[in-house]
Structure formats: structure tokens, C-alpha cells
Amino acid sequence: MKRLCFLIWSLCMLMTVQAAVPYFITPQDFEQGLPTGWIIDYSSLPSLSDGNNHNGVWRHECASDNALLVNPEGAYSGSCRMAVRTTNPEEYCVRLVTPVMDVHAAGAQPVLRFAHAQNGITVKDKVYMDTLSVYVRPNATQPWQLLHRYTEPIAAWRVDELPLDNYNIGTAYQIAFEAKDGNGQGVVLDDVCVYIPSRCTDVSY
User: Fold this and answer.
1) Is the pTM of this model over 0.85?
2) What pLDDT, on the 0 to 100 scale, is given for residue 76?
3) Residue 190 and residue 117: Cα distance in Å, rounded?
4) Per-residue model confidence (pLDDT) at position 5
5) Which of 120, 191, 194, 200 would bridge with 129, disulfide CB 3.0–4.6 Å?
6) CA dihedral 75, 175, 178, 146 (to 10 degrees)
């Protein structure tokens, strides 16, 4: 998928020279850690019994840091990914938020594409799993709106595409990936990009 995203981006950059449209970006594969401008939102993360908020946060995981990346195996592309995991029984809920994007300038409905997984644990015929919810807002003055929630176990890497709502007023558009604890094996994310299908255009931050 990384090669596809970069191919799309490269083709679009050639188009930019002629069209002079200032909103292209490189897709984010998290190989270098958290990209510039992305933030981890701790405001919705409850304190643990010791009063700290150090558990259940989005972390940068790389194969070079561990002998083996599991649940699922490896990264979707490259050797790194973002993940949320916890061994603490207290519930967590934390968001990974993109920088602002001028999706309005694109003039057409953008699509969010990303790879993700959330493997569950089965105990006495009951499946426990964490969930991933995708939220969007056209600007910082607007409330977050749920775009999609994944509530089923996803044991292997899966690529999904979601058309973005309210893009026509999105001059400072943001996307949030919210992971919520359900006693599963964590939520993982990789290869995130926003593009315009009709124009082969990646939207800029």
C-alpha cells in the first residue's frame, strides 16, 4: 500500500506543476515516529489507580525495538506502526489526531484511507476486544462527529476507505483515531492518507 500511496502522490505532484494546487502531502506510514503536527489527545484518557495517565496511549512500535511485532504480525508496510495497548484493567480512551487540512480547497469529496487491526481475546466463548472509532471535524470550533466505528475483531491487517463528511466547509479539517479499551489485544494503525479519487490528489496539512 505504501508504494501505491507514494505512486499516487508522485503522479499528483506532476499534476501540481501544471495546476499550481498547493495541497499535496506525502502519505503517513509512521516509519519516523509521530509525524509533525500530529498529536496524541490525553484529555479523554482516565487516570489510573496511581493517579497517572501513562497507560493505554498511542505508541510508536517498530520491529527494530522488538524481536517480533504481533497482533497482527509486523507493520502493514515498512517496519513501524502506531498502536494502543494496555495490561491495566482500567478502561482507556485516547485519540490520535491529524494536523489541520484544507480539504475545502480540493473542490471534491476527499477519501481517508488507512490500514488497521484490532484482534480480540476469546474467554469462555465471549470475545473481548478494543475498538477503533474515526471522528472528523471541519474546524476547531465544531464538535467532533463520528465517521465510523469498528466493533468487530480484525485479526489481520485490513485497509479501509471512508469518504469525509462536511468537506465543503473544511478549511481546517481534522481527523481523530480513537482507541477504546475492551480487554482485547490492542488497536494498530498504519499507512494513513487522504486523497481525492477523481483527481488523484492528496490533501495538505
Assistant:
1) no
2) 94
3) 9
4) 56
5) 120
6) -130
